[in-house]
Amino acid sequence: MSSAGHGPNIGHGYVKYVIIDKQGNELAPIVFPAMIGRAARSVAGAISRVESIDHCGSQWWTGEEALLAPSPITILARERLVDPVFLPVLARGALQRFGNGKDAACCVPAGGSCVTGLPATRAADTDKAKLLGEHLRTAHAGYGGIRVIPEPLGLVYAAALDNHGQVAGDPALLSGSVGVVDPGHHTVDVAVLRKLVPVPTSLDTYALGTARPLQQIRAQLSATFERESIRTLIRRIARADARQASAQHRRQKVLVVPWRAVHAPGSTSVGGWWVQDQRAPGSSARPGPERTADRRAIGARCAGSSHNQASGEYSSQPLFQMSHALPGIIAA
Q: pTM of this prediction?
């Protein structure tokens, strides 16, 4: 292929990112929970640190590391498309992981086309596709083009196309009718393809993801054992500790709580210990609960930066040299 290919999928539960370089080699995929949190300074005496993501002058943690923040953020609703911070930070988090914490430029192929997705019934919405494209362009200005397709189609294309974008899959898959069911954390998407051609009326999205059953299971377990979730308990202890701290005692206090079953979106329990830097009121500018207004202010600062170079242009030209052009919207 003449250029690299980028495949970011910022799902409601997990972020998935695949890159195929110019030689057709697929880099090890990146997968992590779709959460962000405002980064804080390291606790005194820490022997390890967490890499943060810089976004318009603000520092963020992503994935499981976001649970170190006082107020981790995950957005399941469609508001994630209008939030100026959430999607760009997650995309940058994925690119930074390709560099093992270093500047992504050292390990991410320059240029290249990007194919991403939205739920089946939302991918045809030009405004939503353009918003997603702008967020990705904010995260990485080097994309040669960004195309938004219905997410279920990506499952079929992964099986039907080789790393050079040529049709090379199972003949039965290529010439027959294929039904796709894509169960996700917030939605279940379906589609039907006949000879790799999507049937427009078959695309549908159902609000039947795993998020609600997981919430119900957590509530039932909490009620059965008459105990709050560990995450809720940790926050309650932290708030009570802060209220009781005297103004005369400004010295640092460290709260260490066993952390055995934190329910991160789309993930299972995480073992280990959770350490939170707690200070008496007034002793430091420790970040408080994250607000949407704060992220909008960051987005406003970003609007004129070099990162936001989305052109908003649309084209029907395929991004790869394929005998079957990818359907979808060119978002940026």
A: 0.69
